[in-house]
Amino acid sequence: MARIEVPMPQMGESIAEGTVSKWLKKVGEAVQRDEPILEISTDKVDAEIPAPSSGTLVEIVVSEGATVEVGTVVAYIDSDGGPPATNGKPAAEAAPAESKPAEESSPREPTPSMPLPPPASPPPASPSPAAAPASSAPAPAGAGVQAPDSAEERMRTRSTPVVRRIAEEHGIDISAIPGTGHAGRVTKNDILGFIESGKEPTRPGQTAVGTAPAPSAAPSSPAVVTSAPGTATPAPAAAPSELWERFYGEVRHPEFPIRSADRVEAMDKIRRLTAEHMVVAKRIAPHVHSFIEIDFTAIDRIRSANRHRWEEQGARVSYTAFVAWAASRLLREFPMVNSTVSGNNVIYRGNVNLGMAVDLNPGLIVPVIKDADELGLVGIARKLVDLAERARSRQLNPDEIQGATFSITNPGVLGTLVGMPVIPKGTSAILGTGAIEKQVVVVQDPATGDDAMAIRKRALFSLGYDHRIVDGADAARFLARLKEVLDAFPEDA
Amino acid sequence: MERDDRVLLLGEDIGAYGGAFKVTRGFLEHFGARRVVDTPIAEGGFTGAAAGAAHMGLRPVVEMQFMDFASPAYDVITNYVATSAYRGAGPLPLVIRGPVGGGNRAGPFHSQNVEMAFLHTPGLKIVYPSTAYDAKGLLKAAIRDDAPVIFEEHKGLYRAPALREVLPDEDYEVPLGKARIAREGRDLTVVTYGAMVHRTLEAARALQAEDEIELEVLDLRTLLPLDEEAVVASVQRTGKLLVVHEDTRTGGIAGEIGMRVSERAFEWLDGPILRVTAIDAPVPYAASLEDAFLPQVADIAAAARYLARY
């Protein structure tokens, strides 16, 4: 019979020991591969440990409450499903220990008599990696990308180039697939069979290779489920060749201690995607922000003059519509503001697609007005209202939130004077519009040339731009033209 | 030689004695001493003479009594012959052939494989057949090719009973630079050549019977130029590559093949690229040591089994 060892897994780089908090299976019970069989707790994380193999739990070596070193065998599984060992006794019972203040529930030191797993048996052809019966339990997020993952962990979570490519094409989390190769590696046949069986769990977000799904998102995943949200499956240490891909493609949020009065909730999908996107967007683009003050007097006049006509047409033309109209025209004049850096090239976008940030309270979504430069003012206004309403009722189509070439966000709607928005990845700039407020300003009397004070409606605008492609003077020229157009808004827009 | 009277042979003991392995037995009587030339034991000298003959429009075939002794001619072959076409001195259609390989208890000077000494030399072609049919077709192609060709004949295959076959009488060529799929299989690609083709096929039969593992065996036949397309296509089908060669490990052709697969087929790999080779040592004389030195069927089977289950 094949006795498979269940070792105390390495749950993080600096974790040397773990406590068996609860056995979920009894001796003699059948277990399925990747089915949780015990719960452990460590300094950093609580976790369920999946069975490394299907079979029968034949011996529990470490009983509940005992703390043992990482690598210590805590149980044996008979993969042939043989009878439980008759001489099995919970060895850790015999281990007396000093109590440790930090771990009230587990007042035991590592049991010194526990054997470590034997060294890996060498493969036949002198080459190659060790093939130890590795636990498939991944390390927690706290381990960081520097954690020196074992070859077994890499095999389990990264497999091989062809499997990674297939997983990427199908959006599959490799660690969610049962593997039949060395150390539970997912082979090409495993992943192809998995796809054929139609059980593809999509990965949580295209970019989040190393991020564990929220428990509800992928119940079949053998990933460790912990009491804290956002715990990640292990991200293998970055090879130099992968460094940039990972830097721009993967996000892992550091974890922080939870205090007694705290409430912990898993991020919902929009929150998670937003969090990832913002981190990546900030990594990609060197952000610079420039500001300009816009006078809305002319726009106010046009709004008053046309209000009745627009009402009859059933249109609501907001200040934002004016800004979007003006920006959409100017982006043709400033192609670098409507571009993106791609590798060593610059892609100048052939369309003007405006991403319009919509507050969902809670949450944020950015529907896109496609080809905004082909729409008139009222057309843009109608589109804005339509997109915002459908965004709030969650009825946007996926293609309506993609393909923005420039974005506009309006923190001013809630009174904020000005913002410094994050540039969405894949674009080179975003316009932030501040609150429109009446101000006393110094103006020149056109007749006499004398200075005078006047009351005007004004707002601060900020342009966040990617300094790799947009220089400060470019931004200044863009903002100056924007001010020119908005200050003297054309009557026939 | 019947077809083209420009073809002549030069080498040690190839005439009256018929060659150390009797490859040219009867040639002297049939073609005469002007076309079958016994030379002194001076490889550098007669290889240079052959190069001169090639310059003058002949198509010489030089026999090294053992390819181990091509080394005295290394200067002529690499500096003079291989560079001729590039230097504007004209192509040098010259074949340098001879027995190679171990397993015959012949010790370090009569058992070597020489391909890697020449693989790094642009301008040469290197051929290493594994069957009698290929040997005939490749030798004809080599003689008719305008490039200088190193032609390795594994001495263990000369008289292997299992490899005897009746060859067609007609004039046929096997094209240089084209590998042959010696056996089709889905699980992993084994790239090999020469005597190792037969050991790999034996391992493949064992794995099929015992483990239901199907090896695809690619017989390179020509090492330079390497049939990269065939190797890549096979690896793209199977996702796994094992290279088997009788030559020693470090600087062996497995390194070159593995590199090319890494460049061309990395995204198809479903396991590490592995190799089974002789160990880095001179070919031992003692039988037990030579057996330990050379790749055996069991070594190939073990590596292939490991890789198939990876």
Could you characterize the architecture of this molecule?
The complex is a heterodimer of chains A (493) and B (310). By secondary structure, chain A is α+β, with helices and mostly antiparallel strands. Chain A has three domains: 1-119, Beta Barrel (OB fold (Dihydrolipoamide Acetyltransferase, E2P)); 150-255 and 265-284, no CATH class; 288-487, Chloramphenicol Acetyltransferase (2-Layer Sandwich). Chain A contains nine helices and 19 strands. In chain A, a hairpin with a 2-residue loop joins strand 10 (339-342) and strand 11 (345-348). Chain B is 36% helix and 19% strand. The interface between A and B is medium-sized, with 16 and 19 residues.
Query: The CATH topology of the largest domain in chain B, please?
Result: Rossmann fold
What's the tally of helices of chain A?
9
Spans of at least 5 consecutive residues with low confidence of chain B: none
Termini separation of chain A (Å)?
A: 82 Å
- Major sheet details of chain B: 7 strands, mixed
CATH architecture identity of the largest domain in chain B? 3-Layer(aba) Sandwich
How does the SSE layout of this entry go?
The complex is a heterodimer of chains A (493) and B (310).
Chain A: E1 3-7, E2 17-23, E3 30-31, E4 36-41, E5 46-50, E6 55-60, E7 67-69, E8 73-78, H1 151-158, H2 161-170, H3 188-196, H4 243-249, H5 269-284, E9 287-295, H6 297-313, H7 319-333, E10 339-342, E11 345-348, E12 354-356, E13 358-359, E14 364-365, E15 368-369, H8 377-392, E16 406-409, E17 429-433, E18 437-444, E19 451-466, H9 472-487
Parallel strand pairs in A: 12-16, 16-17
Antiparallel strand pairs in A: 1-8, 2-4, 2-7, 3-6, 4-5, 6-8, 9-19, 10-11, 12-15, 13-14, 17-19, 18-19
Helix pairs in contact in A: 2-3, 7-8, 7-9
Chain B: E1 7-11, H1 27-31, E2 36-38, H2 43-55, E3 59-63, H3 74-81, H4 84-87, E4 95-100, H5 115-119, E5 125-127, H6 132-144, E6 149-154, H7 155-158, E7 180-183, E8 188-192, H8 195-211, E9 215-219, E10 222-224, H9 228-238, E11 241-248, H10 253-265, E12 274-278, H11 287-293, H12 297-308
Parallel strand pairs in B: 1-2, 1-3, 3-4, 4-6, 5-6, 8-9, 8-11, 11-12
Antiparallel strand pairs in B: 5-10, 7-9
